[in-house]
Amino acid sequence: MHGVSKLLALCSLLALALPALAEVGWWRTAQFYQIYPRSFKDSDGDGVGDLNGITQQLPYLKEIGVTATWLSPIFTSPMADFGYDVANFFEIDSTFGTMEDFEALLQRAQQLGIKIILDFVPNHSSDECEWFKRSAAGDEEYKDFYVWHTGKVVNGIREPPNNWISVFRGSQWTWNDERQAYYLHQFHHKQPDFNYRNPKVIEAMKDVLRFWLRKGVYGFRVDAVPHVYEVEADENGDFPDEPRNEWNNDPEDYGYLDHIYTTHQPETIELVYIFREIMEEIDAELGGDDRVLLTEAYGPLDVLMQYYGNETARGSQIPFNFELLSNLNNNSNAYHYSELIHNWLDKMPEGQVANWVLGNHDQSRIGSRLGADRIDAINMMLLTLPGISVTYQGEELGMTDVFISWEDTVDPQACQSNEEEFAHLSRDPVRTPFQWSDEANAGFTSGPNTWLPVATDFNLVNVKRERSIPLSHLNIYKQLRSLRDEPTLKQGDVDVTAISPNVLAIKRSLSGYSSYITVINVSDDVETVSLDSVFPLLSTKLRYVVVSDKSIRRTNDETFANSVLLLPKEAVVLSTI
Ligand SMILES: *[C@@H]1O[C@H](CO)[C@@H](O)[C@H](O)[C@H]1NC(C)=O
Ligand SMILES: *[C@@H]1O[C@H](CO)[C@@H](O)[C@H](O)[C@H]1NC(C)=O
Ligand SMILES: *[C@@H]1O[C@H](CO)[C@@H](O)[C@H](O)[C@H]1NC(C)=O
Ligand SMILES: CC(=O)N[C@H]1CO[C@H](CO)[C@@H](O)[C@@H]1O
């Protein structure tokens, strides 16, 4: 029986046995939380976050209702790109602790009912990886683990084989003296790309996944999937040049070329299906809850939807939905919000679950990107939409981007540029230490220094203070999280509508239960909306369930559905009575 009909058969079975399909698979309504381990909590005073710090703070994740947390890379690495350059896929980097520390983290997480997901960086290793060293040395087993080319000779001078430009500027090809050839790297020159056209590489990666799943992790977030494959070499072993982007005039810049041969090759989707098989292999081997695959890819929606799987193969349960993250801006109106939400819901294959991502370690924070006065509104949207929500650490507190001077900048993507350009390339502003309290260094470390400066507003924006303020960002987030346990929010239908250019409404409904309506004023104008004309069969009166500190109404206040007043950028969640 193939995938879809199997799923359909399963659905009809469950329809008899269980209240709703949404009960199946813990991840279908999960609250994911991304931890950037360098910046979450430092347990040993060296100014860099670590695994024991995460273990100490797992109760906080429990407090805010996290079901699963994914950790940015913790594997052994020379840290040329802060862990996205893995030197040993089977070890924990000493910056973060030891394997015993990781096992203790897993054990504590299990006690608390929180699942741990690891970041898997398949596109490349570090140049300090044993596999790369053996490949450079021409070792038979490893010689084709990476992409090598002797280059071309022009006027007696050796040059890289083609024009490909690295994401971090400059050629994608770096000369290796030992091998007497260039190796390919789509990112940093210390991150040589794997040759996925070699089946041995795929087998090696499957073993990496099995190793950590057997330790007790519940899945992986697979990094930057579009870059995993390059176009296949021609019969001479050569790769074609990529065409120019006429709008870009900087020949060192990644945007100078249109990356038709180095991103979104059709084989990348197939690789995700292969990785999913490993999740299922371990589900069968160890039993228990489903293992999941979260995939990071930026690209056209019809391509992204293929990551879910096709009629014969299952793919990623959670292909990250970056529609809102990538396309909303300070000036987006409610039609724009609605369109972006519908883009995913309407294109998603039958039987799959939506997910909503508004921040990560590579993107400006919500409060800085969309305005600090929209933080609660965005969290209300994120947590009342159907399916899976993904929160980047600190967004629940309303942390904003921190100004980092050129002198303090450490992100390689920024350091490789210059003092004029670095600010728009740097990801340091969103990676600063997590703000636990108003103590020194925001309670992140007991030591005197931190690897990146702490935000200057930490005495106002921190967990300890926000716990004590009823309508703080943190407490609103926690209220929303509790609301998500309601059957309507877990399993109900969704109706997303822009009532006007200024007002977005998200209605969730489930037969036999109260309906919930999130109403967001995205504009700067005061406005009254009539919800019963937009959502027929709504009750004449509605009750406020979640309000923000902008609201003049309080929780449990009532209003007539035909005249809901919203202040500028206010958002509320209402329920039918
Ligand atoms: C699904 O994807 C697999 C792997 O790419 C492919 O072999 C298969 O033909 C696809 N099935 C359909 C129905 O497209
Ligand atoms: C968004 O717009 C408001 C009002 O125009 C402005 O105060 C704020 O700085 C802007 N935020 C961003 C991130 O541009
Ligand atoms: C949204 O806020 C603006 C003021 O910023 C206000 O004029 C408008 O009436 C509000 N919209 C609603 C529906 O209340
Ligand atoms: C595939 C991959 O590893 N993605 C990552 C690729 O490497 C760059 C640089 O390390 C990261 O920033 C990506 O996230």
UniProtKB/TrEMBL annotation:
Pfam families for this protein: Alpha-amylase
Alphabetized SUPFAM superfamilies for the sequence: (Trans)glycosidases
Keywords: Glycoprotein, Glycosidase, Hydrolase, Signal
GO BP: any one term: carbohydrate metabolic process
EC id: 3.2.1.20
Catalytic activity from the UniProt record: Hydrolysis of terminal, non-reducing (1->4)-linked alpha-D-glucose residues with release of alpha-D-glucose
A molecular-function term among this protein's GO annotations: alpha-1,4-glucosidase activity
Record carries keyword Protein transport: no
Enzyme class: hydrolase
Glycosyl hydrolase family 13 catalytic domain residues: 34-431
Signal sequence, renumbered to the chain: 1-22
Family assignment from sequence similarity: Belongs to the glycosyl hydrolase 13 family.
Entry protein name: alpha-glucosidase
Species of provenance: Drosophila lebanonensis (Fruit fly)
Taxonomic lineage: Eukaryota, Metazoa, Ecdysozoa, Arthropoda, Hexapoda
Protein encoded by which gene: LOC115633689
